[in-house]
Amino acid sequence: MTATREPERRGGRPAVLALVLLIEIAAALFFVVDTVTEMDENGPSGRPWQEALVTLALAIGVGLGAVELRRAMIHQGKQDSALATASGEMNRVIRDQFEAWQLTPAERDVAYLALKGLDIAEIAALRKAAMGTVRAQLSGIYAKAGTSNRAQFAAFFVEDLLAEGLPEQARPASE
Fold first, then answer.
1. What is the sign of the dihedral through the CA atoms of 51, 52, 56 and 57?
2. 130 torsion bin: left (phi>0), alpha (psi -120 to 50), beta (else)
3. What would you measure as the largest C-alpha separation in the chain, in angstroms?
């Protein structure tokens, strides 16, 4: 294949939680130092006890934030692993089907790029080919696949994946 796109990272939530946790830790440290300093100056009465309660609440928040951050990171790791497994399996299915259709290496490149959603002009630019050449290759691919357009070609690969979620009356009769 001549070109690939870098997968997007979906790690926003753990990063935000980590930032919030760092801010909470800084605030908690400030309150602890402030409360200890005021308790030394004023003795064990007055406002420092209120600040101590607020500091305790903030420390509990930091702890809960740390737990949630850890859970989010574990969840993201599981999601990333599942996605990698599914992606690898989908690539294997596509590669096997391309072999069954006896696509040429150039047709395989064009077919992959079409499945990824690139239009004819983008495919032509990536492959340094004329748009007419890409159109001809797509026509050949569709003919070998027994489809007549890009939507049918893409649907060939996702039809079985989506059939599981269809209501019973919408399922094809062959099931």
1. negative
2. beta
3. 88
Question: Would you say 155 and 114 are in contact if contact means Cβ atoms under 8 Å apart?
Answer: no
CA-based end-to-end distance of the chain: 35
Helix (H) and strand (E) counts in the chain: 6, 0
Cα–Cα dist 47/89, whole Å: 63
- What pTM was computed for the model? 0.55
- Average pLDDT of the chain is 80
* Residues 6+ away with beta carbon under 8 Å from 158: none
> What are the tens digits of pLDDT across the range 25-79?
888 788 778 777 776 665 655 566 777 787 788 888 888 888 888 888 898 889 8
